[in-house]
Amino acid sequence: MSDIGGMSGERKPFRRIRLGMVGGGREAFIGGVHRIAARLDDRFTLMAGALSSDRVRARESGADLGLDPKRCYDDYRKMAQREARLAEGIEAVAVVTPNHLHAPVAKEFLRSGIHVICDKPLTGTLREARGLAAAARKSSARLIVTYNYSAYPMIRQARAMIRDGALGALRIVRAEYAQDWLAAPLEREGQKQASWRTDPARSGGGGAIGDIGTHAFQLIGFVTGLRVARLSADLDSFVPGRTVDDNAHIRLDFAEGARGTIWASQVAVGCENGLSLRIFGEKGALSWSQEEPNRLVHAPLGEAPRLVTRGGAGAGAEAAAVTRVPAGHPEGYLEAFATLYREAADAILGAPTSGETLPGLADGYAGVAFVDACLRSGRADGRWVVPALDPP
Amino acid sequence: MSDIGGMSGERKPFRRIRLGMVGGGREAFIGGVHRIAARLDDRFTLMAGALSSDRVRARESGADLGLDPKRCYDDYRKMAQREARLAEGIEAVAVVTPNHLHAPVAKEFLRSGIHVICDKPLTGTLREARGLAAAARKSSARLIVTYNYSAYPMIRQARAMIRDGALGALRIVRAEYAQDWLAAPLEREGQKQASWRTDPARSGGGGAIGDIGTHAFQLIGFVTGLRVARLSADLDSFVPGRTVDDNAHIRLDFAEGARGTIWASQVAVGCENGLSLRIFGEKGALSWSQEEPNRLVHAPLGEAPRLVTRGGAGAGAEAAAVTRVPAGHPEGYLEAFATLYREAADAILGAPTSGETLPGLADGYAGVAFVDACLRSGRADGRWVVPALDPP
Amino acid sequence: MSDIGGMSGERKPFRRIRLGMVGGGREAFIGGVHRIAARLDDRFTLMAGALSSDRVRARESGADLGLDPKRCYDDYRKMAQREARLAEGIEAVAVVTPNHLHAPVAKEFLRSGIHVICDKPLTGTLREARGLAAAARKSSARLIVTYNYSAYPMIRQARAMIRDGALGALRIVRAEYAQDWLAAPLEREGQKQASWRTDPARSGGGGAIGDIGTHAFQLIGFVTGLRVARLSADLDSFVPGRTVDDNAHIRLDFAEGARGTIWASQVAVGCENGLSLRIFGEKGALSWSQEEPNRLVHAPLGEAPRLVTRGGAGAGAEAAAVTRVPAGHPEGYLEAFATLYREAADAILGAPTSGETLPGLADGYAGVAFVDACLRSGRADGRWVVPALDPP
Amino acid sequence: MSDIGGMSGERKPFRRIRLGMVGGGREAFIGGVHRIAARLDDRFTLMAGALSSDRVRARESGADLGLDPKRCYDDYRKMAQREARLAEGIEAVAVVTPNHLHAPVAKEFLRSGIHVICDKPLTGTLREARGLAAAARKSSARLIVTYNYSAYPMIRQARAMIRDGALGALRIVRAEYAQDWLAAPLEREGQKQASWRTDPARSGGGGAIGDIGTHAFQLIGFVTGLRVARLSADLDSFVPGRTVDDNAHIRLDFAEGARGTIWASQVAVGCENGLSLRIFGEKGALSWSQEEPNRLVHAPLGEAPRLVTRGGAGAGAEAAAVTRVPAGHPEGYLEAFATLYREAADAILGAPTSGETLPGLADGYAGVAFVDACLRSGRADGRWVVPALDPP
């Protein structure tokens, strides 16, 4: 089990990374999650923010968090420029704005040599993603995308088992991401989260596919290593008046011969945050659900299924490396998110082994390309579309 | 709770129906299930059989069951003709042969005025189904198809709740039927069940879609009342050398505007008989799984989900009518199958209310048309196909 | 998988045993269960009954079941005497009366040389049990007690695993049997089942401990082979006015050194028929719940727990011998009950191997002695009591 | 949902409390948990520590955490005295030593006017607890005991529902705390955690009852408000050579008339951290398990059970107040622990409402008295013992 700040045997000189944040002021959601995640393993100190573009809210939101008022900005450009010049300026920035701002904000900080930890999807549109890709290539700083679900210990376990051949050749991948919080027209009641996420201008065109479908897509790639050769998407907008998809059925044909499906829905009544993944190979199967993240069911062909638990006897090194407390002491969403931040800290400080599991430009770009392909297929009555998943 | 032979308040003069069986000899599977189902509520007596076309096996199989040797046939035609003439000849026959024999056998008995209780799918091909439909229309006898999963008490409960508006307008229907018994090439080892079910000539062309996909299709219609307007099917044969599908992803567009999917697989390692159904409407959702059939989860929009159990406080009249033992005393597969036989007995004896829930020609024909449409869509890379679900 | 009437390889000349029944008329519960159980595997034919001591009800109840009116008795003594003399008289009788009548009825039939299949508990009082034991010893006929839960396939599996040492020396046994149907004073509303079960004169003194606690007690012995050296019982009557226990906490010290507990309750709101068993040894543990009877969790020390399913890869010969349909097709309460009848048939016909799993006088007597010891301990504020479990 | 640092509507001037720690150096477990918990909601800054009594380990452990070397002590007395005099000395200290040191350390800091956040059990012996109670009464500083399980949102929900009468008069309380990590003689292999926890001199005499049984005991009182009138305990030491209990069955008679049981075991193979609580009243029941902490099952008498989830429609204000992320995003062990620290911060800063849910001297003392009573009952073959639960 881990002690604070790293696993035993991996100790290194203690050092906190100076962090800034863009977005995440009062009434925002994901900003608070990023702050807890950054703090949990004690690898970051939040020192500056452009928490809002509204001057008063920016200042008050900073005060809530104990920030130095001089480092509470209402303009992310000023923040990037000034922090880059400070002797003890921020080394990394968390970008937690609505999707359409990811690209301009991230580019600004990358240009200033400040590492970017960006919420997903990477950008709202494929065009923005291309521009950001170019900026990232030119920058000495890292671009990290918080596909947080890939940091769950049992997801790491699943990835390792598949890589090591426990399932043989893969045949079928079934992913779901079902929620119900948009089952009613919340956006018409002025709910802030609902408003921007159902507004194509701010979300980037995708609704459920961008907000949650990309998580499922990334998770499939992360765990299986399979590559999507083509896809077909049926998109629905069940709630009257809604102009983005709130339900999507997506079929995936993998280059390796396997078949996959993603169901992403935000109108699935009774589903809270129902992200699940089932993978079937010729020699076995794995099943995992985000709402019970500490367990992974492994069914070897012709044997009784096994319940592999975080911290338990069946869990291997990859899971152990991101485990903080013993088996039976549930770790959850925030811990997995914090693991991404821990790994980001390692990457920023140049630890050699961290790159493999940390989502960056490639994952981020592929996610935007996935949404783009889904939108194209959806508009064409579900015809097969070949997504261009690699950044230019 | 029910006493034997019928619910209290529904008693009628005791009378057992004389039953015959075609197929179901030694080493067969589903024949034994039909016999238990017929016997469980004491509404039938098995009196004759063409249990095998092999003379010795037919006789020995009959002896195993205590049949009068004179009523053990090796030819179903002779059986139909002779039994129809006997004073105490059979009144109904269970047809439990491989699929390709359903049509000729059923036609023979219908022609003889003997009621037919036929295993699903109704026939192997749509052409046979058309012929059988014609025969059924001409006969005074009933044609019943054992879509047994529609007889589970909690399925009856779900159907009643949807009919009564508990879910509002339906939006999404997700059905799965996942097994793993064909994950390896069992048919090459001479396993009898695997052999005929993977042989297009005997199965009728469909593999998983015919064997289990039709169950999911029928269940969707039974529970929701929705009508499929078009469908798209991706069919796979993952096991090398297999010539029928062993995995299918099917999309359904319903005439009423809802979307549906069926996943039918016989290579889903770790899945035993994983038939499940989830239905989402604008006001609520229902979730049911055949492997835990005594419970139904009802999630009303904006309220805590409820666990409705067979015999429990949340179950209504439709569920109670097919419940034998109190809540917490699990009823299973055989009891649901027996309920179909009980309702078949009521129908044969002319009870007025039984027709609604008893699958007959319409369900049977629609199932074959569904398989046919899936095969056509599958051959055309999943293009949308409009199935002709009504018998001519 | 089994075909009807016995497992493959175990076929024998087909022969149905002629069965009678005492108790089980209209409005009774367990009589109907016994009849389905007797019929399910086609090993018995019900031919006679003293279904009620009320003449009209006896006759009408018999007519409901298609019995010959001449063999519908209103006096079990007459029935025993007359049937014993008939050429084709009954060979066995099911005793499904309230507890206080078990002893006199069973004795009468044993004296007549007719095999007795008696519901549990064997008798209402220890004194009656002694008398019945003496009668059983003198009779050529068999005495069988329907401790039906011991016939579940996964219970057979658990028993075999423990016998074969999979758990090592046993340490802790935790059994529960929790229901809620007596949480309110149902007996005051004239509910028939509640009335006799809460009436000490008809139940025998025990409430929950006799009605359901004995099941848990028998199941522990059946599965573990452990022997209770002493016990301590805290009995409660939570519902005002109730004179028998409706809740019991019982501690068991086993002769072999293990510790056990039984919780039996009929006021546990939300529990339907919550019989569960957990057994912990030095090398592993097993966990089973009657409401999901087709699965058994096996946790080997230091390994990931396994899910053993009826019909699945982890199930052995003992489970297979009492399995009718394949894995994933749930078998339930009635099937397990039917297995006892199947084994009773084998025993009556003299099959050599059936005796071991079939509960008889020893189990029946021990159950009554258990209730007696619980009542004594309960009256003495839970002091330790040594039960005399062996029949004299 | 909560933003970071407090719920909306509860904002207050941002201020971090200066925290010290005694114990919790390298290889310790619970110290790391306290540090994450203190940090998660950003209400504390760790500034000093006596992390070990070994000078080198104290310094190195401090360096791991980025502590100022001048504030890394190897003697808690020196630490208390010096920090009390520093202008920016610590305001509170976390005590995370083995049990036998809790009393002397806590007394030292209380005497210095420094708030104490002490791990459970409060002390090793009742005598120490009396001394600490006296010290606490004399001090202006607060004594807080980290009974962390009482901070789970669904536990708060359960407490509120019972207080508000949802269950009516309580009848039965069933608590379990089952682990398996001491199923083998780990203490003989030099495992540090096992060594002190099975050493009566350092644990205080209790084994499983002190380590985990107290958690269950405290949780029962916290959730139900019931008061134990007497108890009876059967203690086992199953592992050869072990001198403290590794398994305990405890019966509780509550003053209000309800009955309770606790099963605490550290040899229950297959159980990881199986703390569960079931509570049955005349009008309903609640069921909760720590390993799936985000759900609470509520069974109202005569209605379908409901699944109440953290953040979901059925959760009330008490649960919402300690909820950080939306429903379906699992919160776990560390979040609940952090909630205690958040509430400790509120209490230290004088927030008026925090006292009620924060365990302090009373809970701490009662826990030690509970262990003491169990040991006395256990030595007397389980006789009933009246515990003196109130501090003198």
How does this structure look, described?
The structure is a homotetramer of 392-residue chains. In chain A, 34% of the residues lie in helices and 21% in strands. Chain A contains 12 helices and 13 strands. In chain A, a hairpin with a 2-residue loop joins strand 10 and strand 11. Chain A is globular, with a radius of gyration of 20 Å. In chain A, the strands form 2 sheets. In chain A, strands 7-8-9-6-10-11-12-13 form an 8-stranded mixed sheet. Chain A has a 5-stranded parallel sheet with strand order 2-1-3-4-5, with helices on both faces. Chain A folds into 2 domains: 132 residues, NAD(P)-binding Rossmann-like Domain (Rossmann fold); 203 residues, Dihydrodipicolinate Reductase, domain 2 (2-Layer Sandwich), CATH 3.30.360.10. By secondary structure, the first copy, chain A, is α/β, with parallel strands linked by helices. At the B-C interface, helix 1 and helix 11 of B face helix 1 and helix 11 of C.
